[in-house]
Amino acid sequence: MAVLVLAEHSNNALNDATARTVVAARAFGGDIDVLVAGHNARSAADAAAKIPGVRKVLHAEGEAFSHALAEAVEALVVPLMSGYDAFFAPATTTGKNVAPRVAAKLDVMQVSEITKVIDASTFERPVYAGNAIMTVKSGEAKKVVTVRGAAFQAAAGSGAAVVESIAAPSGPFKAAFVSEELQKSDRPELASAKRVVSGGRALASAEQFNQYILPLADKLGAAVGASRAAVDAGYAPNDFQVGQTGKVVAPDLYVAIGISGAIQHLAGMKDSKVIVAINKDDEAPIFQIADYALVGDLFKIVPELTSKL
Amino acid sequence: MKVLVPVKRVIDPNVRPRVKADGSGVDLANIKMAMNPFCEIAVEEAVRMKEKSIVTEIVLVSIGPAQAQETIRIGLAMGGDRGILVQTDMAVEPLAVAKILKAIVDSEKPDLVITGKQAIDDDSNQTGQMLAALLDWPQGTFASGVTKEGDKLNVTREVDGGLQTVSLSLPAVITTDLRLNEPRFASLPNIMKAKKKLIDVKTPADYGVDVTPRLQVVKVAEPKKREAGEKVADVDALIAKLKSVGAI
Known about the structure:
heterodimer, A: 309 residues, alpha/beta, Rossmann fold, 2 domains, 7-stranded parallel sheet, 5-stranded parallel sheet, 8 helices, 16 strands, B: 248 residues, 9-stranded mixed sheet, 30% strand, globular
């Protein structure tokens, strides 16, 4: 049996979601090859070769792959699948964009955002915004799966897989990259951070969000998150959003500030190891899942916490 | 330009889903149902494009039980022109939905399909991408902005690190994200008018699509419960607790 894992990367660096997806693929079983499709992506391919448990890295170079557009990646992956029994992609926006195209071309039903591999055909995945956990069995000849990174811890150790260059289709493709606006930040990446500090609607403005949340995050070396309410109100950018429709995180420490705890937010963070909630409403649903609850005015508590840490 | 918008009937997003005691699924008996919120955003985007004279006709499709007709009526009241109900009581998986939609695209020949990025019941996030692949069309998934540039569409996408803009040749598939727009409420006069709009009723067999599920649901369970912890009196107590468990 063999699994093809799609690497998540930014050409010059490999994203942690790749190693987590490899861990899920190892639970599935068989030989594991990682596909790095990019432009000037040799360093990402070399990093993928160090993930423990990888047989080889397939490295496809082409300008069409510089931004991982789904049309180009599909054209690359589908012919490769004749040699594999499964395609595992991280449930990142890239993986979610590409995997269903591959599944449709292979005429198989995809299993989305798995949180557990039970055996080579059975998986667990959350449905209804995390209000239910579904166990599904796939009888498809080839499995196409996306993997929720927060549910799998990257394995320790280092591998030494070979990197093999493979031919890449050059297009033309019917979609073209125009531009991107990526948030520049020295903070850890939200999806894989060990600590996360999140702010909610109670911050009341973008200025106060920045003034109160960011210094605490920096003090803790934490990534910054936000509730959907805070994002909708314009206090924080969308890629900060933690929740079922945003990012799902499971850090060692999650600090929820001024977040009431809507179901959709809880679905995105309830697997965190230690949850701290700071809220002035002692009936807030977030307190039902918090390990440590501090009831009070966040505008007094947060600066005090930041200064005493 | 003609647009096709698939709409799904799902549990109302304000209702808390309950898992059935026998583990066979989520209990939907006598539960309030609604149009999937991402599908509402898709309908709204099509209607706005029609208001800007980019779009001439909006065809709504729903695949589901007889009651999915109500979901189509909501979309018609928002500004859709006519509907197609592909009636079935089976739970149809994204791949089969995409195949039915492909057959409808082959006969209706729209220039654009706008779908929600995912349905809030099975959270699959597959249908739009699968349809695009089956049609060999380009896709703009997780859209937060759509503009027409000559004979192409520029779609701004919500990606993990921020925003990405792609240019799509038409025909194309777009899937909607939350910030694309805020869907309107249908007014009473428009709800009355929508009752006169045409809905064709078909079956999956009319499109030659086998909707037998490929995935077998072994069980559906409640997620692990997390217990509430303790209240701490002040910042000092919080810091002491976090230190004691090694969290800081």
